[in-house]
Amino acid sequence: MASPLEFFSGQIGKKLDNTPSAAGNWLAGILLEVSEKHIKIQYTIEPYMCNPTKILHGGVASLMLDDGIGIANFVAGSEYLMTSINLSVDFLSSAQIGEIVVLEANLVRSGANLNHWEAVIKKESGKIVAKASSNMIKTHIKISDLKL
Fold it and tell me: How many domains does the chain have?
């Protein structure tokens, strides 16, 4: 069985539509980079991701941030699965249908029971669409018990 890092390293350049996260699969991002402390995912804004004003829905942007952090934390080397205990999001600009955005998440602090992450979604122009911070807490579920 592949480690989480090996599994996701094999997904670089591919659409993320066959991962352990069904919600993340729905987003269908393309994995650009992954390591134990960093992830980079590209998304194309689709009509089904938008609110009635045809811009990226805040809930979908939050899902991108939470799922990106989740994948990055999944490969961070913990023996146990970790889950979000909070997600603080700032929405700073809009993204339109057809635009490409890139999410980057970085591990700020790794502890025995808690990891702290920061993430940002940017347009190709470099303009920030949304940014977030999140704390992930260790569960009792061993990653080795999951089927990858």
Answer: 1
Q: Which amino acid is at 15?
A: K
Beta strands in the chain (DSSP E): 30-35, 38-44, 80-91, 100-110, 114-123, 128-142
The sheet that has 80-91: what strands, in order across it?
30-35, 38-44, 100-110, 114-123, 128-142, 80-91
Asked if residues 81 and 142 have their Cβ atoms less than 8 Å apart, the reply is yes
pLDDT of residue 129: 98
Give the predicted TM-score (pTM) of the model: 0.95
User: What is the pLDDT at residue 146?
Assistant: 80
The pLDDT of residue 2 is 79
What is the domain extent for residue 42? 4-145
CA gap 29, 60 in Å, rounded: 12
Alpha-carbon distance of 114 to 85, in angstroms, equals: 9
Q: Which parts of the chain have pLDDT scores under 70?
A: 1, 148
Any idea what the CATH number is for the domain that residue 141 is in?
A: 3.10.129.10
